[in-house]
Specification:
Layout: H1 10-21, H2 25-38, E1 43-49, E2 55-60, H3 67-72, H4 100-106, E3 109-115, E4 122-128, E5 131-138, E6 143-149, H5 156-160, H6 165-182, E7 187-192, E8 195-200, H7 205-213, E9 221-227, E10 232-238, E11 250-254, E12 257-259, H8 262-271, E13 284-289, E14 295-296, E15 307-308, H9 311-328, H10 396-401, H11 413-417, H12 421-427, E16 432-434, E17 438-443, E18 446-451, H13 452-470, E19 475-485, H14 488-496, H15 498-504, E20 507-511, E21 515-522, H16 530-543, H17 550-564, H18 574-584, E22 600-604, H19 605-611
Helix pairs in contact: 1-4, 2-6, 6-7, 8-9, 13-15, 13-17, 13-18, 16-17
Amino acid sequence: MSDIIQLLPDHVANQIAAGEVVQRPASVVKELLENSIDAGAENIALIVKDAGKTLVQVTDDGLGMSTTDARLSFERHATSKIKSADDLFNLHTKGFRGEALASIAAIAHVTLKTRTENTEIGTEICIEGSTITSQEAAVVPKGTTISVKNLFYNIPARRNFLKSNPVETRHIIDEFHRVALAHPQVAFQMVHNGSDVFNLPSSNTRQRIVNIFGGKTNEKLVPVSEETEIVKVNGFVLKPEYARKSRGEQFFFVNHRFVKSSYLHHAVHSAFEGLIRDGLHPGYFLYLEVNPQSIDINIHPTKTEIKFDDEHAIYAMLRATVKHSLGQFSIAPVLDFNKESGFETPYEYSKKSPQAPTIEVDRDFNPFSAPSHSPVPSGFKKRQETTQWQSLYVGMVDELDSPASSSIELESDEVTGSLFHSERETKSHATFQLQNKYIISPIKSGLMVIHQHFAHQRVLYEELLKNMTLQEAVSQQLLFPLVLTFSAPEISLLEKIREQLEHTGFVFSQFREDTLQISGIPVSMIESQAEKVLEQLVDDLRNEVPDAGFSQNDLLAQSLAKSMAVKTGTPLNQQEQEHLVHQLFACKEPSVSPSNRPVLVTMNAADFDKKFM
């Protein structure tokens, strides 16, 4: 029997290793940003084109590399972070596997420009698929610039698995958030397709959170702080009223490294027990510092999973710390960076008591008296001439008592109410509501059970889809415009679908970096729902944004209908129940919801007969 085991060629081994480290353009962004942090950079710029498929470039002002180091950095298992196996349990840096640059160079066109502070001439290296095509001296600024072009150019099957540009951009922004939040002392800049997405100056943790997620985030934050021998906890949690249905703003950092931990998440979630409803998730930005020897982060290639020596103690301390902070959040001082000082009470008036305004009223004023012909000075003047206004009604009593008036029938509530008496009597038991969830309607063969939430979803879905297709939406204008706050990426996402939203009935009067102003909303929407509906829409669009066309309109209509539909547990009166039933059967597909769930169930009289046999 011939031998069947053989060594893999280097380029194949590199591509396999790249598949573990580089899953999408966001993986490249993460590795390059972390290398810049390890290099001691104070300013980092990220430039992305076509969601990273065409270009990912990171420029920093860190230590830079010598010519020899620049060449060795692309070799597998080459790193400056560790020297022995014992160093794995005393890590203070990000990258330590020595596979990032080698893996990236195996599946892309990479250009490296670097220079140390002590040298005048730097180095420029070009690599294509693990093969160095050129290496030469170059005049470059201090620090390092790495450009990664045409990702997965030599693995077309892997490139085909990438999602659409908006989805891949969302993943890149998520990785950018994680690194920027972990290092607020470093200034970050992000540019996508030539437009600035983020420009974050060096700041403290609270300011960094506000700069990323918008000014309104500041009033949502509750400070968390505790220090013990095992763990030191700092950061912020969001107030319970800002809990969301989706897991959005949830960040754990252990020793300045972003990690995912369902165990720690459960600790925070349990601290909110009794403060938020089931199905909602709290937001948090929590920074944990522990002894590096008590954790193991070398259990996954992406280094986002972690193991603790004493998980139970950290769980208990984290839960108690968050619970203690929530108990005091109502009296905790809040620093508003965008607060307008002009609205504050001046210091010299702080101890003065308010004075009630004086109002002069002419108590003898009679609206039925004749006006005075004399000029009226300031204030009120008592009118001298009066007329007998009672004379206007002289004779009215006599006319009403006359025989002719006795034949006149006056309209009364009883006569008006009897106009539809017979119709109401026949429909008084047409429908009724069961557990504020189902609408029961009798039919000829038995009865029909309708799920009110799914039924309203179907009605709104077809109405919204028709409005977006025919562009004939009706909007209700608001007396006072709504000003809603979102993060910069969320504003950008809403601006892309602005036209479709306007076709549903929204009227946007202003779009800014982190706020938008709404002057009109769809007729079927309540004003208080607008913010929650748009937040849910953004959460739905984060995962998948189809290209322009019917598929995008369908996704928008589904999301809006789900948010605007009457919720389970809402009581409906008789007219509302009947109106919903009539609207449902006017739809093209009344039997299923937009998400293909059954809306109604029919039960024949024979089904009831079997129960009594």
